[in-house]
Amino acid sequence: MALKVYINGKLYDKDEAKISVYDHGLLYGDGVFEGIRSYSGKVFRLREHLDRLWNSAKAIWLEIPMTKEEMAQAIHDTLSANGILDGYIRVVVTRGVGTLGLDPNRCSQPQVIIITDLIALYPEDYYRNGLEIITVSTTRNHPAALNPRIKSLNYLNNILAKIEGLQAGCIEALMLNHKGEVAECTGDNIFVVRQGRIATPPIDAGILEGITRDAVIGLARQSGIEVAEIPLTRHDVYIADECFLTGTAAEVIPVVKVDSRTIGDGRPGPITRDLMQQFHKLTRS
Ligand code: PMP
User: 99 CA to middle of ligand 1, Å?
Assistant: First the structure.
């Protein structure tokens, strides 16, 4: 049976799920989105994802043509139409069909798209042995130009960084902000551990306020581990005992090498491993 995709209140077979080439989501990346996980039929932190989607939309003057409750229902309906218990949910809201000009006022209704699919997980080896990442020259978007807190459909900044990373043989890449501080990776937030304490860049470093980031900060604090949201430099990463990334798809993933420097002893550290386990429990129990 073909996978069903939700578009504006109706379910379409994947091959029939189409939108106009005049949609400003396509023409200009004018829109917002969310990536969400479902574990055993339960959508993880749905309220937080919907709040972030609505905040992203508000920041770009986009009015989502339904309530959060209706969106939650539509997500559950799409998951159940596809019989997906463990999967990935992509919610996209575009500006809608417009003219070839930029003016969003000339666009019709915003379009709401919900795709639910099986999740392509990272290879187990990365979780067991850790990732190697590099810092790329593509600077994270300046918050005063396009705030990284907005999860917008224009991901070129991240894609350019991802290409640089891939060309260097790394599946994730570290981006610095306009001040040269550590910001985040192309699709994940970054944490370091030093002397038993955790540090991660603050939101005003120009990063996405990751839902997984928030969940992991909560888990660490509950375990009595101090978490500081403070500006970090590359130097702080190089001298860390441990480093890990967080994201909806990756969950918690250890990093053992950054810019060819070995982090700690080159193995996923004890605090990282503990948080990986705790996050696993949080999502699967
Ligand atoms: N930073 C960026 C740039 C992202 O795109 C994402 C989501 N893939 C994250 C961080 C992690 O956020 P979350 O934990 O909400 O998935």
Answer: 31
